[in-house]
Amino acid sequence: MAARIVVAGGGIAGLSAALLLARQGYAVDLVERDGPPPKDLGDVQEWQRPGAPQVRHPHMFLGLFRHLLHTRLPDVHEDLLAHGVDEVDMTAPPGVEAPADATELASFGSRRATVEWVLHRALQGQAGVRVHHGLSVREVVVDRGRVRGVRVNGAVIDADAVVDATGRRSPLVGAFTKEVEESPCGNVYHSRFYRLLDGVPKPPTFLVPVVFAGGAGFGGGLYAHDNRTFAVVFARLPEDEALGRLRETGTFEAAANAVAQFEPWLRPGSAEPIGDVVPMAGLTNTWRELTPDTPSGYLPIGDVLCTTDPILGRGASFALAGAAELSDLMGRHGADLEAVGAGLRAYVRRTVRPWYEDGVHDDVERTRSWRATVDGRPEPPSGLPPAVLTALAGQQDHHLWELAQLRANLMASPDSLDTPEVRERLDAVLATGWEPPVLSPGPSYTELTDALAAHNG
Ligand SMILES: Cc1cc2nc3c(=O)[nH]c(=O)nc-3n(C[C@H](O)[C@H](O)[C@H](O)COP(=O)(O)OP(=O)(O)OC[C@H]3O[C@@H](n4cnc5c(N)ncnc54)[C@H](O)[C@@H]3O)c2cc1C
User: Fold this and answer.
1) Residue of 7, 30, 32, 234 best suited for mutating to test ligand 1, as the one with most atoms within 8 Å of CB
2) If you measure from the C-alpha of residue 307 to the centroid of ligand 1, how many angstroms do you get, rounded to a whole number?
3) pLDDT, tens digit (0-9, with 9 covering 90-100), for 256-290
């Protein structure tokens, strides 16, 4: 058994890996560059997380995340529900009773900081883990092809294995990387958090727990989160200067107020902002291949090997799934860290790579269509993407609903809807004269930019 493990990075992947490995009996040092979470959950919004700036943006936790949390870390799942996270049952369309044999499926929206706060709470009571805050791992120490530890601010922490969970900007993986594939996601985020005032009902749920806006030229949504918080988000093309002004608080608020379907939660007396408008740029889809002579004991998980577009809300699920896979491999291979590393890489190629390719394809299509709209040559509606159409048709045919939701929640493969059965069922729904409901009644890109121009004089 490899006795000593350093987990570098305490985001979703690192925190869950540290918990799972300590529960298997390993001695774990978790090293995180940022400071510890606040004592009280009520102060979590002020927690400074410069090492993971996406913590300040809304997060959807898909069915795969919820399933893994429930099955692998049930106490953490329970604690999360006890601390203000509400799940949304996705097994059947809203108002429809799920068939008895339906696969259990739920997802939730939550501030990332709340999820991490609960994971930290579990670590505090966990034997076998030491958590070091405010320390940066600089380098993996290697000797004769094997990991010996990590260099941390001048000192060395000895270890037999290093779990690299330092995220998409990992300072460690470069030393072992053979090839990098990288393409821009083609969007910049602007988001802001609010808290509902007493008596104001929470936003509803449809397909995913969000109220949609946009679709052509930009994206937007209102996401219900934990403890009666919610977030408004806009996504725009990086080169779109008109929407670039969304970074300004007044312009952002004008845009949010231009979306009629957000009005019940943004009208005066409904909610108060609990943070600034924050941007997120420089987003890429990234895939890294490691060199064949990567040292035994170097074990990357989460965003390190594969980063996907946040607009699809998949990264946190892959982070937890990577930690769970690592834990299984350690259980199976123990001291054979070469086998653990090979197993981990095979898992990422088999399970995550198809979603990476799916996301890159979607981003190319979306970027092309948004650009056409922004350039003033909007394309005729090309119809909904098949996965969305199938999910909507699922309100008529509940088996289609289940299949579409399993895929959307990463619990079936990207090509799982590409079957004769799904096509036949979809055709049967369309043959009844059914038409998909309008997902986003507006505003259009022009209406939104006009509203911003009017606001900015
Ligand atoms: C704007 C935005 C919105 C997103 N929304 C969603 C969503 O809705 N749903 C979803 O599933 N995913 C979403 N994602 C993706 C998701 O946040 C990531 O996939 C996920 O955070 C990956 O987890 P991780 O633990 O691998 O990395 P991270 O969460 O990035 O954690 C890495 C950790 O390592 C620490 N660290 C870094 N360097 C060092 C070092 N040298 N030494 C020690 N510690 C270090 C960092 O401080 C950080 O705590 C979003 C991403 C972005 C950018």
Assistant:
1) 32
2) 9
3) 999 988 999 999 999 999 999 999 999 999 999 99
**351: CA distance to ligand 1 center in Å?**
19
Q: E strand or H helix at 272, and its extent?
A: strand 271-273
In whole angstroms, what is the distance from residue 393 CA to residue 404 CA? 9
Distance linking the first and last C-alpha atoms of the chain: 67
The yes/no answer on whether domain 188-282+443-455 falls in CATH 3.30.9 is yes
Nearest-CA residue for ligand 1 atom 53 is 54
Reported as a pLDDT band with limits 50, 70 and 90, residue 214 is: low
Residues 6+ apart with CB under 8 A from 255: 220, 234, 243, 246, 448, 451, 452
Structure confidence at residue 431 (pLDDT)? 94
Answer yes or no: CATH 3.50.50.60 is held by domain 4-183+284-359: yes
158 CA distance to ligand 1 middle (Å) = 25
Strand ranges across the sheet with 177-184: 177-184, 284-290, 306-307
Tell me how far the alpha carbon of residue 40 lies from the centroid of ligand 1, in angstroms.
22
Kindly tell me if the per-residue pLDDT of 208 is higher than 60: no
> Looking at the chain, which residues constitute the CATH 3.30.9 domain(s)?
188-282+443-455
Gap from CA of 284 to ligand 1 centroid (Å): 13
Residues sharing a CB contact under 8 Å with residue 81, sequence separation 6 or more, in sequence order: 87
- Looking from the CA of residue 152, the nearest atom of ligand 1 is 42
* Separation between Cα atoms, residue 264 and residue 266, nearest integer Å: 6
As annotated, the residues of the chain forming the CATH 3.50.50.60 domain(s) are 4-183+284-359
Among 12, 55, 192, 232, name the best residue to mutate to test ligand 1's pocket (greatest count of ligand atoms within 8 A of Cβ): 12
Atom from ligand 1 closest to the CA of residue 62: 11
What's the pLDDT score for residue 209?
Answer: 46
CB 362 within 8 A of CB 183: no
Cα dist. 64→114, 191, 320, 391 in Å? 18, 25, 9, 17
Average pLDDT of span 81-88 = 95
| Ligand 1 mean position, distance from CA 12 (Å) | 7
Q: Which residue has the higher pLDDT, 382 or 164?
A: 164
Residue 382 makes CB contacts below 8 A (sequence gap 6+) with 369
Angstrom distance (rounded) from CA 389 to CA 410:
17
